[in-house]
Amino acid sequence: MSQKRTVYGEPTPEELYLFHEGTNFHTYRHFGSHVTSENGESGVRFSVWAPHAARVGVAGDWNNWDGEHYQLHKLPNSGVWTGFLPNILEGTLYKYHITSSNGDSFLKADPYAHYAEVRPATASVVASLSGYTWNDVVWRRKRRAPYRKPLNIYEMHFGTWKQKEDGSFYTYRELADLLIPYLVDMGYTHLELMPLTEHPYDLSWGYQSTGYFAPTSRYGTPQELMYFVDACHQANIGVILDWVPGHFTKDAHGLRMFDGTPLYEYADPDRAEKIGWGTLSFDFSKPEVRSFLISSALYWMEMFHFDGLRVDAVTSMIRLDFGRETVGGWKPNEQGGAENKEAILFLQQLNKTIFQYYPHALMMAEESSAWPGVTKPAHENGLGFNYKWSMGWMNDTLDYMESDFEQRPEKHNLLTFPITYAFAENATLPLSHDEVVHGKKSLLDKMPGAYEQKFAGLRLLLAYQMTHPGKKLLFMGGEFGQFIEWKDQDQLDWLLLEYDMHQKMKSYTRELNHLYLQLPALWEQDHEWEGYEWLNADDAARSVITYMRKGKKTNDTLIIAINFQPIPQVNYRVGVPKAGTYEEIWNSDEPRFGGTGGRTESLLFSEKVPFHQQEQSIEMTLPPLSVIILKRRTSNRRKL
To answer: Is the CB of residue 570 less than 8 Å from the CB of residue 576?
Structure first.
């Protein structure tokens, strides 16, 4: 493995060998620009991979952007250009002045830059990552993968959670002081940030990047991002970064045709073009590209202490026919299949490497097909992630929840089918940004019915998500019932909290989140059938489902009953596993949450009436559009 440098010089033969093998996982330590001293002079060492270039120079604000007289030299048999330029200071703006083999000259931003100009300017900036003292050692020592722990993620876009009065962005450091107390109060365990890699276009949300080693300068310096993550950890909040290895933007200063030829992208346009997105796919067959991308993944964990990555658009990477089923056609692999074997091998290598360095990292795949083995270990021919976004659960659930009440009985299978595959992968249940933008409506506005029924539906949805097997993710604004879909340029509509129902919705979400943390049955056996048991999956006529969630201890078992119709169900009988007194510990229809106040008795005594394959049962009232959670009392039990 590449060793950490203390002095920067030109890349060593060993480092170059590993780079060309696809196993140099710390390329950022010797590529890019590094402030250093050589032969007693202070300056910057520049190194860049451009194998097909005829010449490479460094152009900057100190030489009128003319790199002809500031040339790098090419290391033999490497395709790597390097050179030391004295008297260059931190903060200097630069680009690589590349002359292609056919004589064309152009300027390119540094693929390995640690910092960039604030958009719309596009130059790289000489920047050091030193100077920050971390204070999160306690968090990092106790960090463990949360298979049997609660995991409740708040997904956010950094620039639109809150903005200053003039509409400008808060810096990483400034937002830490606002956001972290909110996350702690609301009971979230983790924060997921939409991509922060440098990108030219705000409305790409960071998913079309130019700088895989540069935190976007929109929100401040690399050290300010370090402060943000550190502060999260000190407040016991984990931080996940949305990361995009599947494709990159075509902007002229970026990776496209970097040395005058397709370098980072596939040479075959049918493989390179991401139809519908206007972007280019990385060429995963090239070992240098694999070194680049895996180094980027490790970089965010090593230098910025991120706890894991949500890997975007995995399906687009592993399927050659993605987006091309009806547009332009697609070329099968050597065996005639649709699998992109190079991308699969890359993802396996990525995950093996991450877990080698960070055994407890969170590696979450956004994989939208039924691809088998996404969370199966790579050595067992899986992709090697430890979590997968359950897009099937999300799509089925939102399809059902958006349905008019009279249509719900015929769509009942959308509630029952997701359990059939719930334990095939380690699942995260996302209610993500993609579902509340571009005309899809906010979560609240998706709900049918009158004003109060919309809130009841959202309360039901969040409690259903919380009681369903799998870890949890909610996009910002959903917690208080953002009424208009995410506008992706303006801050959330915090003014809604001046209205009673939105304030009650926020209080509801806070209490639900904290309840989740207290109930092992909701997370201790998330990934095993032993943690779940249907009581009644078949009451389609009344749109009711009942089930049990189980922890390791029998006394932790919960009874969940959900009424998806806006009418109460009176004298509704539910089977229970043991005789005793059952207590209502959650009722989404309580008046303090904005509900109607419909409820059953606070204490329910079981009867020896077999029901739902159980020897005991209880009778209860299910309020309209409600989730009821019951727990058996372990003391003062009434004898039957």
So the answer is: no
Q: What is the mean pLDDT of residues 106-117?
A: 98
Phi and psi torsions of 626, nearest 5°: -135, 155
Q: Cα(60)–Cα(304) distance, rounded to whole angstroms? A: 27
Count CA within 13 A, CB hemisphere, residue 542: 20
pLDDT at position 328 is: 60
**137, two tokens:** 């050692």
Residue 473 backbone dihedrals phi, psi, to 5 degrees: -145, 130
- The tokens of 253 are what? 């200063």
| Whether the predicted pLDDT of 499 surpasses 60 | yes
Asked if 396 is an active-site residue, the reply is: no
- Is residue 180 over pLDDT 50? yes
In 10 A of CB 170, how many CB atoms? 20
Instruction: List all residues 6 or more positions away from 533 whose beta carbon is below 8 Å from its beta carbon.
Output: 547, 548, 550
Q: Is 619 a catalytic residue?
A: no
Q: What angle do CA 416, 420, 426 make, to 5 degrees?
A: 120
Task: Kindly name the residue from 10, 192, 283, 366 that is annotated as catalytic.
Answer: 366
Q: Tell me: the pLDDT tens digits for 588-623?
A: 999 999 999 877 677 999 999 999 999 999 999 999
Q: How far apart are the C-alpha atoms of 80 and 502, rounded to whole Å? A: 57
Active-site residue identified among 312, 425, 526, 584: 312
Report the relative pairing of strands 238-243 and 308-311 from DSSP bridges. parallel
Q: Kindly report the CA angle at 429 between 426 and 431, in degrees rounded to 5? A: 155
Tokens of 270: 């049918």
- Reference 377, options 352, 413, 410; nearest CA is 352
Cβ neighbors of 82 (< 8 A, separation 6 or more) are 10, 11, 45, 46, 47, 48, 72, 73, 75
Nearest-angstrom CA–CA distance, 544 and 520: 24
Query: E strands, 183-274, where?
Result: 190-193, 197-198, 211-215, 238-243, 247-248, 273-274
Contact 282, 338 (CB under 8 A): no
Torsion of CA 603, 607, 613, 615, to 10 degrees: 120
Would you place residue 20 in the very low, low, confident or very high pLDDT band (cuts 50, 70, 90)?
very high
pLDDT at 600: 65
Helix H, strand E, coil C: the string for 344-372 is HHHHHHHHHHHHHHCCCCEEEECCCCCCC
Q: Give residue 333's identity as a one-letter amino acid code.
A: N
Whether 100 contacts 259, CB under 8 Å: yes
**What is each CA distance from 465 to 23, 148, 412, 487, 522, in whole angstroms?**
40, 17, 16, 24, 10
For residue 203, what pLDDT band results from cuts at 50, 70 and 90?
Answer: very high
**pTM over the 0.90 mark:** yes
pLDDT value at residue 206:
94
Alpha-carbon distance 104 to 99, whole Å? Answer: 5
Structure tokens, 159: 């620039």
Three-class DSSP category at 87: coil
For residue 504 the two structure tokens come to 């009650």
